[in-house]
DNA sequence: AGCACGCCGACT
DNA sequence: GTCGGCGTGCTC
């Protein structure tokens, strides 16, 4: 095996294939598939993944691999195959699929240097370049670029005076600490000590301390030693110099949970309903079969305990478990439950960790130092090799769908891996996605139901308040009389309230009260939103920013003001109405700092505030006994989005939020304010009636030919020139239409809901199909031909199979 | 994606 | 004549 097939780190259509390289003798046998390597590619050096080994290359003259980047492959057989599967299913580049499966730290960084060619001296160079190349040092390309001397350098490179060096750097560094070890056998320590000069008292003390603190030959942190002994590094240095101590750099894991202890918890006894639900899971584990279960359990019905005990069984069989939770609910509370039960066997992967921390957690998984991983979407790629169960909590959450390439859904990946490992996949939710519930009704998934709350407590009572009615009665505030009175009541009783603001589609844009003018982004067809932090108007999509106008640019009226309700505005009004209330606000602004999310929640849990006011992020995981009132300020903002899942999302969110109230002994109340109280998603959420919502929504989906009745694929084209997108979109749609069967519905091309982003016009085509064996190859052709043909002209095509964002 | 190569217009 | 603009095509 002398040749390696490599996928190179160039995400482009033309390079989305393997390139063959010969393996230098010194690496023969150690370079294996799944390993990252540095390879020459054209004049550069870049990262690549070895896919397979073979005897001969496809072309006659092969370049050699420069060096491997790993000792052990980062992708095993299963993950390599999963990569190809992802590529095929999501139509992404192979390199993107591989990179999505690995922590960001493993993505290479590239650097470009210049160096004086051997045997030349600076004097031969152009005068203004000489200062850069003084003592044979490398000069970074950037430095030359900034000084505007690139053309001069180009010449020098051409005539052979200067050499360009390309270097691949690993992004993730292992963290190391300097440790000191006693380098003398115990029985000779006294001898050595006596051999020291009499004035070296500090050195003797250090030796004694080392004996004492690290008897078994364990090292001591160099930093700790200097601190404890109140000594300087020079003393230590001289001991090292004499060979009495040795210094080693030891790899350590960064510990995101440093200074935290997790109280050990033990399996709770299950209710009869839980027993019934867990039985099929356990038997699937025992039989080593693959089966997907939908665990449909109302809030507070004890789904987590089922997860925990299923994992327990898996661990007893010597296998591993993956638990996915939505990013937003990957709260310390959640982590506690798993760390509390399984202790150090748990690795945690979520976006709050630094690149280095994620890298460390990933390596713990790879080295089999943990048995359970709890994490967000990408944790589904955890490099375990003997998986016994995969659990997806809050299965309906849209954050399981990645909105950039590869546009995969964690649920699909989980089921792929479940089949590979012949293990169960558990999808848990109180409000399952229509897709999953439909599959369980058809028997594709096993349905496990928990419809009783563990404490047998009643579900909270829900009031729907018609805000139009409030307006008619002359109440122009954002709080209805009903909600306000209840709020006051809680304050008097010392109970807590959660106020939920659905920010989406409701953020603070600016509107002129006289002419209706709304301030828009000049580059994107979307309104600018007010950001208090920078006191400016900002675009969500391109980052454009401008000042807040004091008069309307259209009619010069001064009645231009914020519209919609941001959390800050609610807070202001709240302080005005209830000056004594202590309020904690949770939104992007107050939780952007690391750990602030947790701090605010803890404070609220400890009763340091009466009202918790926040956005989406408080809808989940909150479980405090003293919360007896939940208010939803405007339930219907999401309903008006151009998304066939709008009703489903609204229902899920309202159900979720309502579940925050009265989870323990005190009964809970929920007030939902809305302008469309008659909408079935709001009405049925208030009755906690998932089944009727499912029926109703299925009817709507059937009428609209949407999932789960049809699969959909969304193609979006964008280009600077409106005429061009329209033209190409039409040609493309005609081509697709000619290739697919006539039972398939093809909508468009039409302008996207956001017709322009970053000055690029966007057109889309929606394909709805039940069975379409030609779809994959047709779409590949579209990418191949149209992209190839128009990419140079600045056209981009994005294909989303099973989209969750229709914008 | 980069980067080189190559073919045309504007300059010392 | 040559410098440098960008369109074209290749990278094992």
TrEMBL record:
Q: What is its EC number?
A: 3.6.1.-
Source taxon at top rank:
Bacteria
- What keyword terms does UniProt attach to this protein? Hydrolase
What name appears for this protein in its UniProt entry? Primosomal protein N
Q: Which EC class is the enzyme in?
A: hydrolase
